[in-house]
Amino acid sequence: xxxxxxxxxxxxxxxxxxxxxxxxxxxxxxxxxxxxxxxxxxxxxxxxxxxxxxxxxxxxxxxxxxxxxxxxxxxxxxxxxxxxxxxxxxxxxxxxxxxxxxxxxxxxxxxxxxxxxxxxxxxxxxxxxxxxxxxxxxxxxxxxxxxxxxxxxxxxxxxxxxxxxxxxxxxxxxxxxxxxxxxxxxxxxxxxxxxxxxxxxxxxxxxxxxxxxxxxxxxxxxxxxxxxxxxxxxxxxxxxxxxxxxxxxxxxxxxxxxxxxxxxxxxxxxxxxxxxxxxxxxxxxxxxxxxxxxxxxxxxxxxxxxxxxxxxxxxxxxxxxxxxxxxxxxxxxxxxxxxxxxxxxxxxxxxxxxxxxxxxxxxxxxxxxxxxxxxxxxxxxxxxxxxxxxxxxxxxxxxxxxxxxxxxxxxxxxxxxxxxxxxxxxxxxxxxxxxxxxxxxxxxxxxxxxxxxxxxxxxxxxxxxxxxxxxxxxxxxxxxxxxxxxxxxxxxxxxxxxxxxxxxxxxxxxxxxxxxxx
Length: 518
Description:
Blueprint: H1 17-33, E1 50-61, E2 64-72, E3 82-88, E4 94-96, E5 111-119, E6 125-134, E7 144-153, E8 161-168, E9 175-187, E10 190-199, E11 204-211, E12 218-225, E13 233-243, E14 249-258, E15 272-279, E16 287-288, E17 293-294, E18 302-309, E19 312-319, E20 333-334, E21 336-337, E22 341-345, E23 351-355, E24 363-374, E25 379-383, E26 389-396, E27 404-411, E28 418-423, E29 428-432, E30 443-447, H2 450-455, E31 457-465, E32 468-473, E33 478-483, E34 492-498, E35 502-512
Parallel strand pairs: 1-20
Antiparallel strand pairs: 1-2, 2-3, 3-4, 5-6, 6-7, 7-8, 9-10, 10-11, 11-12, 13-14, 14-15, 15-16, 15-17, 18-19, 19-21, 19-22, 22-23, 24-35, 25-34, 26-31, 26-35, 27-28, 27-34, 28-29, 29-30, 31-32, 32-33
């Protein structure tokens, strides 16, 4: 299958890239001028205006953290993809940078799709991404035509780049349209690339390529095929080594599975981002040792991308608004990223994704409520009006009798709220949006292990922003990320107990600073 791999990059300009970038900047500015901030995040990354999706090109380079993301600058729904960009010296205060990529080559004329950044042996950075065209030349009715591309930055600040062109063509006889989202890494003296593929018989796969020079790539094998025949594509793949508690190397394979069907608490979203843990040897296939598990159990999580900095595996995800109604579409912007999380393996051998330690630097002040006891069906207001806070709380499960208990966030005078609760009947932490006045409803539930339940304690970190909530369960053993579109007026937070009592050992509320992108 090496016959479709070009020896040198193929560069076919059809538009002036600088002019396309200037037009896109004007589009974002036009959207931003009419932006409504009622749900616009204070401490999550979002575009100034327009639609965003997947995080791209994540890296730490020459003293700066960089987050790129898929951007449609001309509307609040998905459209021709560009790369937006923000940077930071500390992961706390972020600065808007110029749009990095716009469609300007023949191979990407309908979109500069997702990709990654990697630092080479000389300490220089290189971007890899997918060039997208509609197969019929004008819309999606004929499917996709996708190829892998590369680009080199023009400066150390990564504020512009020069496209090098196509490096891996698509063997259209072996692929059912989908062929995208390259992830590059080095093992031994060889560079490897994997990306998501829908095979000719519509099976979700990740293919493995190798290279000595990061330009000429040769096909090696199918790295992984999803065992579920309903899964027809693995978007935004990730693949990295990690050490368990005994120092043994494992490999984590991550992907966003398209086509999986809901089953009980699993796969409740339109498409579901998850991982498997296993082993891999260079040149071989990935051998899973676990079942497919969700990165995040919330309503709105997709397309995570991770990168390694000095031994830390850091990941951002996209809070994906797939299901209508999507009220922020009316506000001049749509979509945000999660907080950065650090991936580790817990003592039980499963993945833990906790907020990076830097996030504590966003705390402006702290209100310590100490221990709290609520009697049968009790309620206590924790904050009268809280639009951007973090709450740390420990529930004494052994001393509580409530069937459900927790926090009603974004609680407004019209009776709307989002409920973050422990549900004793199912032994899970839930985010329940049935009382929300805006947006999609429904609930999501994160499991607790037998050991967690037997411990008699439950630790929650709840990050409430203007239009979202992230719930970290027991240090990040599970996470739930969901949009929460508050109604007008003050947004209270209430501690509640349903059909029983609640004992909280400790509860702290931190007001959060802006990250500077509002």
